[in-house]
Amino acid sequence: MLSLETLLEKPIPELKALFVDRARPVPRGFVEALETDPRQGAQHLAKRIRARWRSNRSEGQRLHSLLRFEIELWAEGYSFVAGVDEAGMAPLAGPVVAGAVILPRNYKLRGLNDSKKILDGETREELAKQIKRDAVCWSFGFAEVEEIDRINIYHAGLLAMQRAFQGLSCVPDFILVDARRIPNCSTPQRGIIRGDALSASIAAASIIAKTTRDAYMLELDKTYAGYGFASHKGYPTPEHCRALKELGALPIHRRSFARVREVLGLDPVQTELFDSGAETFEEVALAQPH
């Protein structure tokens, strides 16, 4: 490690590259020395480094808070806590996909959050790759369009969750689920409202589910040209609704959804057939990241 005197002799842009851009560890006393340096650039660099420290502390506190449910379960003796979440309830086309993840104890990944809050697709992909590398184990499960139409979207989401949980290579001691409970599951579980924003394990599962489904829809875009699945992933965006009306429904469109049935000239499905107001998923879909 270079001495403070040697570091302070270096050009400010070089110091910025080291301690801001590359986030290298800052030597003790270096920021204080920058603050007393007469160069305006040195004092500005000191402010940038302190801002980075504040950001790191804030993110560390957020990630610790995101582990509160897991920490409580670990303290109770549950070693393997799984998070489970789904993606794709609202789209008019394609499967619903669930993710299941068991994270290492006290796992903190910068940027980990509910997948819906991560608007940049590349960032979600990078987080998914890191989660897969670090996780004790992870899995995903699909419920296909035919199953959605046969048992309704609500139960199809549960089926995808069940398959994701069953696909884990190690058996969890406890399961945290976003808002619901997985049927036919003997493992203790807890449904947490808005769990993908409150639990690290569920947030990780939401990222696995979202990125897995997005990759699947990108492949479908190659098969079904003209519908724009690569951009909207099947959500009822204005772009998708226009394509649906102009080109017609595909085999991958959900015939139990009102907008698809309208295009096909079919009678509306009785809303009581859909638990938890499944038809309302279409109404909130435009608020979801595509």
> Structural class, from secondary structure content?
alpha/beta
Q: In percent, how much strand structure appears in the residues?
A: 5-15%
Instruction: Please give the CATH architecture of the largest domain.
Output: 2-Layer Sandwich
- Give the end-to-end Cα distance, rounded to a whole number of Å: 46 Å
Largest sheet: 5 strands, mixed
At the first level of CATH, the class of the largest domain is Alpha Beta
Q: Rg from C-alpha positions?
A: 24 Å
H/E series: HHHHHEEHEHHEEHHHHHH
Q: Would you tell me which CATH topology of the largest domain applies?
A: Nucleotidyltransferase, domain 5
CATH superfamily of the largest domain: Ribonuclease H-like superfamily/Ribonuclease H
Measured as a percent range, the helix fraction is 40-55%
> How do the strands line up in the largest sheet?
3-2-1-4-5
Number of strands: 5
Number of helices: 14
Please state the overall shape, judged from the principal axes of the Cα atoms: flat
The average pLDDT score comes to 90
Low-confidence stretches: 271-288
